[in-house]
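Design request, tokens follow.
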């Protein structure tokens, strides 16, 4: 049996949970500086919608933030990214050295004209660096179940 990847300790799990929550809040509130700080300078982001073609990867913090800013410019509703079911799978071959793999669910809600609705659900597959006071996403991939 291969050695299992040790689970991150309670302190690392707490700061990772905080990071995921801050990223969701920053997306919803369009807090540019807060969201930017959630990504490492050399971070990579990609997504796939309903099993379609890979979108991205968007490379570097500024490349990722360009995508986010473009999405904000088109948005007319108020979004709520709800992150749940966070767990820590064994590290895979693609893991950045020292990064902690994290998987979580996304439920994306929107309110417009007084009506709230579930827009989409998905799964985040992240790699996070936790180093002292630094906790950043170095890789993020989002699989969405449908277009929204």
């Amino acid at each position: 049996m291969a050695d299992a990847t040790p689970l991150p300790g309670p302190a690392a799990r707490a700061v990772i949970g905080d990071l995921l929550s801050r990223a969701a809040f920053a997306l919803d509130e369009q807090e540019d500086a807060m969201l930017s700080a959630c990504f490492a300078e050399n971070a990579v982001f990609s997504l796939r919608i309903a099993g379609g073609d890979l979108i991205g990867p968007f490379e570097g913090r500024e490349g990722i933030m360009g995508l986010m800013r473009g999405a904000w410019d088109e948005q007319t509703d108020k979004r709520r990214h709800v992150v749940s079911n966070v767990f820590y799978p064994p590290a895979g071959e693609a893991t950045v050295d020292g990064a902690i793999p994290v998987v979580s669910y996304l439920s994306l809600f929107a309110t417009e004209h007084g009506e709230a609705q579930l827009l989409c659900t998905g799964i985040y597959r992240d790699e996070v660096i936790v180093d002292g006071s630094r906790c950043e996403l170095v890789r993020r991939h989002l699989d969405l179940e449908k277009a929204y």
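Comment from the thread starter after seeing the answer: thanks! The two ends are 42 Å apart (CA to CA).
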